[in-house]
Design brief:
PTPA_C_lid; rotamase; 47% helix; single chain; 6 strands; globular; Four Helix Bundle (Hemerythrin (Met), subunit A); EC 5.2.1.8; two-stranded antiparallel ribbon; cytoplasm; mainly alpha; 15 helices
Amino acid sequence: MAMDGFSVRVLPKLDSSVGHTFFQPSKRINEGQDVTEFLASKAYVDIMTFLLQLNRSMYPTKLPDGRVQSWPLNSDAVEFSAPVRQLQQLLSKLEAILEEAPPDTGPRRFGNVSFRKWHQLVESRASSLLEECLSADLLRTPSTADPSGPTAEVELLAYFLGSWGSPQRLDYGTGHELSFLAFLAGIWKLHGFPQNSAGVEERAIVLGVIQPYLELVRSIIKKYTLEPAGSHGVWGLDDHSFIPYIFGSAQLAPAISELENVPEEGSLADAPPPNGVAKANIVERERGTNLYFSAIGFIYDVKRGPFWEHSPMLYDISGIQAGWAKINKVRDCVVVPRPGLIKSRE
């Protein structure tokens, strides 16, 4: 969209008059050189556009009367559309399946093998789950070149199943999180979310779908003691997640109007200091309202020892003096996929 010379990039939706062909996604990133090809693809442009679109929506908003509206978790100011509520129902159904696959009590060195049972149950029911919780017209969107060929469901299903970790390796990591973001982006491109004012539906997606997804994933990780996927150890930002740090830092950045660019520095007036991530009492206070601190809180749940020792990159970031907008800006330098964890057919 464009307004008086100011433009906000929005992920374009499929134009039915142009036509589109759906394919079964396959793993295309297997080694380092494949990442270069991915970074030049339309798939990468689409996923980054969607990510930044969601990110902008989480910046506090300047209201016409001069007040500032922030967007904490469980905000009463955010209304959930029918598609968002359907996705919440989908997540609730996945959570209920956890009861059917209790952790194995036998000795183990790595992740709990019962995760494989849970994942198998989800995989066996995936089509029916999507049919129950997503629009039938959306799922059955045909390939215009071959109406009898694969429908949109084939692509959505692959990204959906890629969002829950690896049953073979008993691990979960940022690539699986990225697959869920691609799943939501696919729904967006298929006109699966209503057309609202800028930022309205995006905020509902972040607070109503992505945060519950992250909470469910954390429950799965703890229940089945999943290993970090492709972890760089202390040299990685986080063993499991990335996007809560993007959206969470946006929540704490200065307010913007609909016609302003996102700032490059500064913080919301009453935002906690960035170095609060190293203080357990501040983390505990903020984790219920902020995505960044909710991710930090999970680290406190699963790791022991000094924060600077087990999370040195996050500790270094906490020393940034220019505020949460600067921390949010750091995303431009680090949103790069790890080999082997992203499906792309572009």
